[in-house]
Automatic annotation (TrEMBL):
Catalysed transformations (reactions): uridine(38/39/40) in tRNA = pseudouridine(38/39/40) in tRNA; a uridine in mRNA = a pseudouridine in mRNA; a uridine in tRNA = a pseudouridine in tRNA
Descriptive protein name: Pseudouridylate synthase 1 homolog
Signal peptide: none
GO cellular component, one term: nucleus
Length: 381
């Protein structure tokens, strides 16, 4: 192979240098043209500003086509006081999946949805709004003033708006903001129930029972004496269902129990037993009332109540649910800690007492009296 001459190498290098120089010139020229075009564009309408303006116009159009929804008020932890006549309902507690058995909470929760206090999603899953009831009542049982705690939007005139959506036998009495730690069930110190019944339920077994029966002072005193045996802390495992004597939760405390002087309604004599306790188990008050009646009438011996506190199992029947009414909830410890802190209110509901009393006297008591006279939940024997 022959080596290239010096003149040949110089010719090749010259050609390469010429070619590279040409390419660089063309590149510089193209860059200058693009810069010139860019400068022309800047003179007419800056590209950056144009992009910004386009964006602003697009945002404005979007706002016009899709107006923003009004922001709902921030949800607050509140408690709601309400009363109800239990007739026609399957108790208080709501089961969102059960569309057949109507409950009091169905009415209340649906009313909250209708006035936009809670979204439908919270009605379908009540845990999302931290819903808690203070006291559960069974089928046919009424309440003068029960209470639930939950998170909802604090709308103006909420009580009035909700009542417009509720049937007459269910009333909301008020709403108050509560501490974040508040739980309507666990924060409740005590509950007061009343049981309304005709005095002929106490008619001695050897006498003929009829609506014309009038309780004597001696029998009325016996009712009071027997009732007093429930006072204090006892094991009430025989006064509910499914509780063993060894179950610690069967031990309950009764603060007070009173028997009212008899009164006349529709030519029938009635009385009221008022019981205040820390808490009550399922059917406990109805079984307590039933045993009082059995002892006063002479069906059961006087020492049956004391025997019922022992381990032996005793079958105690339930009194009818008609006369049982949740009268009041007590939040003494909560009121002492938060009632006057400047942010929360006492849960005494004194401002709603007139409405509460009116509801009791015009809706609940007349229903119980009328139903008892018509259906005779305490049949003659």
């Amino acid at each position: 192979m022959l080596s290239p001459t010096r003149s040949s190498v110089e010719a090749i290098l010259k050609t390469v240098i010429t070619t590279v120089s040409t390419i660089l010139q063309e590149s510089t020229s193209a860059t200058a043209e693009r810069q010139e075009e860019s400068n022309d564009a800047d003179d007419s309408e800056p590209s950056k500003k144009k992009f910004k303006d386009d964006t602003e116009v697009e945002t404005s159009a979007t706002k016009t086509l899709y107006p923003s929804q009004p922001r709902l008020p921030k949800k607050r932890k509140v408690c709601v006081s309400f009363g109800y006549c239990g007739a026609g309902y399957f108790g208080l507690q709501r089961n969102a999946k059960d569309k057949i058995h109507r409950t009091i909470e169905d009415e209340l929760v649906e009313a909250f949805v209708k006035v936009d206090a809670i979204p439908q999603a919270h009605a379908d899953d009540m845990s999302k709004m931290c819903f808690q009831r203070a006291a559960r009542t069974d089928k046919g049982v009424s309440a003068v003033a029960n209470l639930v705690s939950l998170k909802l939007s604090p709308l103006e005139n909420l009580t009035q708006l909700v009542n417009e959506q509720l049937p007459k036998q269910v009333r909301m009495f008020g709403v108050k903001r509560v501490a974040a730690s508040f739980n309507s069930k666990n924060s409740c110190d005590a509950r007061t129930y009343i049981y309304i019944l005709p005095t002929y339920a106490f008619c001695p077994i050897e006498e003929i029972t009829s609506e014309s029966y009038r309780i004597t002072p001696e029998v009325l005193q016996l009712v009071k004496d027997v009732s007093s045996e429930y006072l204090g802390s006892h094991n009430f495992h025989n006064f509910t269902s499914g509780k063993k004597f060894t179950d610690p939760s069967a031990r309950r405390h009764i603060f007070s129990i009173n028997v009212a002087e008899p009164f006349m309604k529709e030519n029938v004599q009635f009385t009221i037993i008022t019981i205040k306790g820390q808490s009550f188990m399922l059917h406990q008050i109805r079984k307590m009332t039933s045993l009082i009646i059995a002892i006063v009438r002479g069906i059961a011996s006087r020492d049956t109540i004391q025997q019922a506190y022992n381990a032996d199992k005793i079958d105690i029947p339930k009194a009818p649910p008609l006369g049982l009414v949740l009268e009041k909830l007590h939040y003494d410890r909560y009121d002492k800690k938060f009632g006057n802190d400047g942010q929360h209110e006492s849960l005494m509901w004194e401002e709603a007492q007139t409405d509460i009393t009116t509801f009791k006297e015009e809706i609940i008591v007349p229903h119980i009296v009328k139903k008892e006279i018509t259906d005779k939940s305490y049949p003659f024997s």
